[in-house]
Specification:
Layout lengths: L5 E3 L8 H6 L13 H15 L5 E5 L3 H10 L7 E6 L2 H12 L3 E6 L8 H10 L5 E7 L1 E2 L4 E2 L2 H10 L5 E5 L18 E5 L11 E5 L1 H5 L13 H8 L10 H17 L1 H22 L16 E5 L6 H12 L1 E5 L8 E5 L6 H17 L8 H11 L5 H6 L1
Parallel strand pairs: 1-12, 3-4, 3-5, 5-8, 8-9
Antiparallel strand pairs: 2-10, 6-7, 9-10, 11-13, 12-13
């Protein structure tokens, strides 16, 4: 098929050309005297990205799932109680991992399309006067349903209850795109990955740990080997790694962090808000459809999960978009499989780029029989973008 594939899944995201070029390097010795210079360039940039001066970043050759495991196994012991909420596929998978690792997981199930129930967390934490809960899990951005959650409210719940539990946050599809504040929100373990806001191929798990969390390594009894932070700390102290790192991705990460620094993190966050508002205008005002997110307070600025009308299957829209128009859209997962399709709008993109995803989705919907007005989606999106001041990041870059 002529033309490029247009990637609008919520990760992997589009990789800027300069980041792709940076990864085209000859292999080299990861034990050489030169190698520590790579980590010296990466660590400070990651700390800025997490907005931390006190946290310690780690990079594993894994996905974000590996860092879920690292967060849990380096701080907890078998049978420890953790509090978590389930409102989408990825919050569910973290719960599943904790259960399989032998933790006692107290799950608060809430409607898919909503997010972390901070009020219910607050009630449960206040009732836990014996401090049996050792960690609280929160998914910053639930990719499966297009929902973002208020992590500051979770920290407030912990503080109000004077509860010492650790705060673990999955920000895989939030970091570098949606505001995240490791220090201000008192996060103890923040989990992310390379393939979303960092604009890299998949393959790096990114973790940031508080000093409080790191001190628990000596008392945590869960078995660990590959994800033992002690091994990482010892090797990273001299700029090396306890096993073979993903060398090409390191060069790409250095370049990606430069791209982020040049645009400015606040500008990037504003750009994602601006682009997401245009996409939501296409869905709601143009097509007259609903988002999976139940209320504006839950709207994600990295992915919009679009509910298809009764009697239609979102998988048909995705298949048609891919095979006919070379546009990749995200699928509905688990409880919402077939009920929606997802438009990812994170990473390296602007208004015209995102317009391709909107147009491709609209044509695919029309082709499978969904009655939307031709041209209505892009008309609504462009009306929003043309009549609202673009953020500085777009003005500088484009």
């Amino acid at each position: 098929m002529a033309g490029r594939n247009f990637l609008f899944v919520p990760g992997p995201s589009n990789v800027p050309d300069r980041v792709l070029r940076a990864q085209v390097v000859s292999m080299e010795d990861h034990r050489s005297p030169k190698f520590p210079s790579l980590w010296e360039q990466i660590a400070p940039g990651l700390k800025k990205l997490f907005r931390t001066t006190t946290g310690t970043p780690f990079v594993f050759p894994s996905s974000g799932t590996g860092c879920w495991e690292a967060a849990v196994t380096n701080t907890l012991s078998p049978g420890d109680k953790v509090l978590a909420s389930r409102f989408g596929q990825f919050s569910h998978l973290w719960i599943d991992m904790c259960t399989r690792l032998g933790l006692d997981v107290e799950v608060i199930d809430v409607e898919w399309g909503t997010g972390v129930p901070a009020d219910q967390y607050a009630e449960r934490l206040k009732a836990d006067t014996g401090h049996q809960i050792k960690a609280v899990l929160a998914c910053h951005n639930e990719t499966a349903t297009g929902v973002s959650s208020d992590i500051a409210a979770v920290r407030k719940a912990l503080n109000d209850a004077k509860h010492p539990a650790l705060l673990f946050v999955d920000t895989v599809s939030g970091l570098g795109s949606i505001d995240f504040r490791f220090d201000d929100w008192g996060v103890d373990m923040a989990v992310s990955g390379s393939q979303k806001g960092l604009m890299l191929p998949a393959g790096l798990g990114v973790l940031c740990a508080s000093q409080k969390a790191l001190e628990l390594r000596t008392t945590a009894k869960m078995k660990r080997c590959y994800f033992d932070l002690g091994d990482m700390i010892n090797a990273n102290a001299t700029g090396y790694f306890p096993y073979t790192p993903a060398l090409s991705l390191f060069y790409g990460l250095i370049e990606a962090l430069k791209v982020i620094e040049e645009e400015g993190l606040d500008n990037i966050i504003a750009r994602h808000t601006y682009l997401a508002e245009g996409c939501r205008a296409a869905v709601q005002k143009g097509w007259g459809l609903q988002l999976c997110a139940k209320d504006p307070k839950w709207y994600s600025n990295t992915v919009s999960a679009v509910m298809v009308p009764e009697g239609f299957n979102g998988a048909d829209v995705i298949s048609r978009a891919y095979h006919r128009y070379n546009v990749s859209l995200g699928a509905g997962l688990s409880k919402v499989a077939g009920k929606l399709f997802r438009i990812g709008h994170l990473g390296d993109l602007n208004e015209v780029h995102l317009s391709a995803g909107i147009v491709g989705a609209e044509m695919a919907m029309l082709d499978v029989g969904i009655k939307v007005q031709p041209g209505s989606g892009i008309a609504a999106a462009s009306e929003y973008w043309r009549n609202n001041e673009p953020p500085a990041g777009l003005l500088k870059r484009w």
